């Protein structure tokens, strides 16, 4: 049994086939990239895998458990966490509080601000914030942090649920070159250290080749190749279709 298995998944929007008979596996511990030109279907595939939308046909399983019809919190509970292209944190809460809310939600606790909740999980929160290099920013409001730091905070929020697999949709979108470089190193180190499987989409090929251990190429809703980075780099179809050579 593969860790994450996508079998013959299809998604139609009206008469338009956005995802067409997609089959591939993500191995446990892999850093698996989905690449492809704009409109190839990357976001749709991600939405299917994270249960945000249902496949028209086909199945998606994590450790043999079907993901279809599961609610977002159930998907988190079976070990999947996801971040989106657009930053998704509570801007008026501090970095500390953002991680705290995530921890409270993942442990299924009731949030009660009048019963000493402010200190709840302090050590764990600070450890997570330090891991994403935000230890010094814990009391700053998320909305006041630079874009790159907001993405780091999002990573801490995702890690709070102790996922087995982390889905990152264009993790370096909108970042400066310096932010991109430090973000790549951070993501790679954290997933390796914690033994988390990573599935990510990315349009920046430098980022892809820095992080990925496996790459799948999506084109017009179909997977046209899956392989090691060095195989994908020299694949004729990929060069022609994706890299425009
Ligand atoms: P990518 O992320 O690779 O740029 P998308 O998954 O966003 O590609 O889109 C794939 C195709 O599906 C595009 O042609 C897009 O217009 C279409 N599409 C995506 N979502 C919808 C939707 N909700 N309704 C209709 N068409 C959609």
Describe this structure in words.
The protein is an alpha/beta fold. The strands form two sheets. It has a six-stranded mixed beta sheet, with helices on both faces. Helices cover 36% and strands 24% of the residues. The protein contains nine helices and ten strands. It has a domain of 122 residues: P-loop containing nucleotide triphosphate hydrolases (Rossmann fold, 3-Layer(aba) Sandwich), CATH 3.40.50.300. Adenosine-5'-diphosphate binds next to strand 2 and helix 1.
Give structural attributes:
245 residues; 24% strand; 6-stranded mixed sheet; Rossmann fold; binds adenosine-5'-diphosphate; alpha/beta; globular; 4-stranded antiparallel sheet
Strand content: 15-25%
What value does the average pLDDT take? Answer: 90
CATH architecture grouping of the domain at 1-72 and 196-245: 3-Layer(aba) Sandwich
User: How would you sum up the global shape?
Assistant: globular
Bin the helical content.
25-40%
| Rg | 18 Å
Q: Considering the protein shown, what is the CATH homologous superfamily of the domain at 1-72 and 196-245?
A: P-loop containing nucleotide triphosphate hydrolases
Which regions contain 5 or more consecutive residues with pLDDT less than 50?
Answer: none
N- and C-termini, Cα separation: 37 Å
Largest β sheet strand count, sense and barrel closure: 6 strands, mixed
What ligand species are in this complex?
Answer: adenosine-5'-diphosphate
Per CATH, the class of the domain at 1-72 and 196-245 reads: Alpha Beta
Query: In which order are the strands of the major sheet placed?
Result: 6-7-8-3-9-10
């Amino acid at each position: 049994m593969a860790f994450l298995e996508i079998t013959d998944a299809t998604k139609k929007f009206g008469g338009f086939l956005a995802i067409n008979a997609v089959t591939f596996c993500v191995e446990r511990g892999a850093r698996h990239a989905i690449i492809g030109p704009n409109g190839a279907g990357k976001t749709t595939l991600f939405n299917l895998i994270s249960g945000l939308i249902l496949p028209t046909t086909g199945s998606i399983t994590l450790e043999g458990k079907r993901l279809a019809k599961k609610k977002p919190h159930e998907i988190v509970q079976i070990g999947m966490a996801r971040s989106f292209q657009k930053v998704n944190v509570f801007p008026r809460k501090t970095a500390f509080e953002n991680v705290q809310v995530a921890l409270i939600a993942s442990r299924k606790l009731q949030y009660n601000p009048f019963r000493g909740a402010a200190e709840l999980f302090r050590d764990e929160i600070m450890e997570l914030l330090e891991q994403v290099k935000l230890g010094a920013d814990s009391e700053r409001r998320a909305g006041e942090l630079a874009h790159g730091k907001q993405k780091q905070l999002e990573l801490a929020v995702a890690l709070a649920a102790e996922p087995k697999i982390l889905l990152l949709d264009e993790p370096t979108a909108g970042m400066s070159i310096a932010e991109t470089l430090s973000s790549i190193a951070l993501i790679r180190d954290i997933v390796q250290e914690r033994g988390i499987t990573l599935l990510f989409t990315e349009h920046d090929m430098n980022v892809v080749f820095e992080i990925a251990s496996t790459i799948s190429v999506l084109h017009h809703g179909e997977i046209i190749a899956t392989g090691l980075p060095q195989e994908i780099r020299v694949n004729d179809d990929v060069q022609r279709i994706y890299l425009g050579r």
